[in-house]
Amino acid sequence: MIRVLTYGNFDLFHVGHVRLLERASLLGDELYIGLSTDEFSFKGKSKETIIPYNQRYEVLKSCRYVTEIFPEFHWNQKIRDIQYYNIDIFVMGDDWRGKFDFLKEHCEVIYLSRTPDISTTYLKDILK
Length: 128
Ligand code: C2G
What we know:
Elements: E1 3-8, H1 15-25, E2 30-36, H2 38-45, H3 53-61, E3 68-72, H4 78-84, E4 89-93, E5 108-112, H5 120-127
The structure holds [cytidine-5'-phosphate] glycerylphosphoric acid ester.
């Protein structure tokens, strides 16, 4: 049973997220998500979430590619999460390329290409 793990806000869920999750899910049998809490997004990433955590959770849970979701509270929980959930492959979009190479001691690390021309920031700007 190959387990894949990724993290994110997945705020204003859009096709860039869907295509990342689809490709990540094809790398294994189960896909685990560390979903950023509203507080971590704001304090840790300086990104204010539009959709609150519990609704982002519900939307993500409805996605066919997702097996399990747990909260991402801070930057330093990834190694523990990889061990706790027996993760084989860690995946992020390539805007993060290199940033998580330190996890290579614990699991495979793969960066997937971002979907162009769509982002939560872009959607926020349109909505404004
Ligand atoms: N993504 C993508 N294409 C886009 C937009 C996003 O492939 N057009 C990917 C990102 O690269 C990321 C995932 O979708 O892998 C989630 O994106 P965000 O919700 O913006 O997550 P982020 O704020 O990058 O959080 O600890 C890691 C952080 O929590 C990552």
